[in-house]
Design goal:
With 144 residues, the chain is an alpha+beta fold. It contains 3 helices and 4 strands; from the N terminus they run H-H-E-E-H-E-E. 33% of the residues lie in helices and 23% in strands. Helix 1 packs antiparallel against helix 2 and helix 2 runs antiparallel to helix 3. The N and C termini lie far apart (33 Å).
């Protein structure tokens, strides 16, 4: 069972690995693509943990020729579905308690999958789901 800090830990390790590989393999990976991939990895992990809170979650990242793959496995067979978020940003009301330790709000959430989908449109980046008998893999590909 992953802890709440798991996505942040993965993000730090993934960034170090990508930057190290960029240097040693002389890969041309734009900083913006790295930032987007790190955000997507965090969101996919958070979504998997939320969908299966007391179960195993697995993370994989692969650098191929001109592509970075980020994948998360969880034991839910349900396809991720975006929740409805406010249509306009001016309808989002700031919450003065949001940064307090241990604060939970029902209004937080629902933004993860829309963020992932906006960062992985068809073309240079995409997102796919692969169902397996015991769960699913969610993969995001970033071409560079």
């Amino acid at each position: 069972m992953p802890s709440r800090t798991f996505p942040g830990t993965v993000r730090v390790l993934l960034e170090a690995h990508i930057r190290e590989q960029r240097c040693t393999r002389r890969l041309v990976i734009p900083d913006r693509l790295i930032d987007d991939a790190l955000l997507v990895a965090s969101e996919l992990l958070n979504n998997a943990i939320a969908a299966t809170p007391f179960a195993e979650v697995t993370f994989k990242a692969t650098l191929e020729w001109r592509a970075l793959w980020v994948g998360v496995w969880d034991s839910s067979r349900a396809s991720p579905r975006p929740t409805r978020v406010p249509a306009e940003l001016n309808s989002v009301v700031p919450d003065g308690n949001a940064l307090d330790d241990g604060y939970e709000s029902e209004d937080i959430g629902g933004w993860g999958l829309p963020i992932v989908m906006s960062l992985c449109p068809d073309g240079d980046r995409d997102i796919t789901w692969t169902r397996e008998p015991d769960g699913k893999w969610t993969w995001a590909r970033f071409r560079f």
